[in-house]
Amino acid sequence: MKSALFRRVPADPPHLKVLHEGQAFKVALKRRPTAKRITLRVSNATGEVVLSIPERTDVGLAQKFADSHSQWIATRLARVPERVVFEPGAVVPVRGVLHRIVHWSSIRGVTQVAKGGAGEPIIAVAGEAAHVARRVRDFLEVEAKKDFAAAVKKHTAQLGVSAKRITVRDTKSRWGSCSANGALNFSWRLIMAPPFVLDYLAAHEVAHLRELNHSHRFWKITHQLCPRTDEAEAWLKAYGSALHRIG
């Protein structure tokens, strides 16, 4: 007989299943060594339900905790905005202005913003219908990098610093970042926000080229570069999570 010391400990399941009034919800289980108690959260950005538990908490206890909060989970998920898919007919913002996606031709061509028959803003997409979603996302990423490049150039010139490179990605935890070697990274989703919000993020990360912290000096620089800093922060707090529900 094997010693108890060498018995295999079952791995935690990646998800727990919680039922509420006929609905089944998937709850991601995260064991965190630094956690002192069980916590449950629902991401407004992604709609993901996450249960975090301390290192020594039994999975059975975690399941009971999740089950006891089934109504809370259902209520919170009901408040999460519906996801908008990049498909013909969908309406998505570009630089803060709503545009309808129109698949105007099956012949390969460029994706661009244009005016529809009634003069309304549209994103005109060409090529095979199966590739509409990818072409819209690619277009928005390109536009985002273009706008960020222009904003960074403006702010670095004003501050007398230089950025090593600029990249755009689909970041979840932060809208932008600045590395110690001067590389700036931004979320491409900010192309959907009003231009002053994107400009603020550019100013924020450029300010980090001078102050790689969030000290009083850093915020003073940021406000100098972007007078609408407070307004942009308020916009992101109110509407930022909705950007992650698009595409």
TrEMBL record:
Which intervals hold domain YgjP-like metallopeptidase?
Answer: 36-238
One Pfam family of this protein, by short name?
Answer: YgjP-like
Q: Which domain of life is it from?
A: Bacteria
| Record-linked InterPro entries | UTP_pyrophosphatase-like (IPR053136), YgjP-like_metallopeptidase (IPR002725)
Descriptive protein name: M48 family metallopeptidase
Q: What is the lineage of its organism?
A: Bacteria, Pseudomonadati, Pseudomonadota, Alphaproteobacteria, Hyphomicrobiales
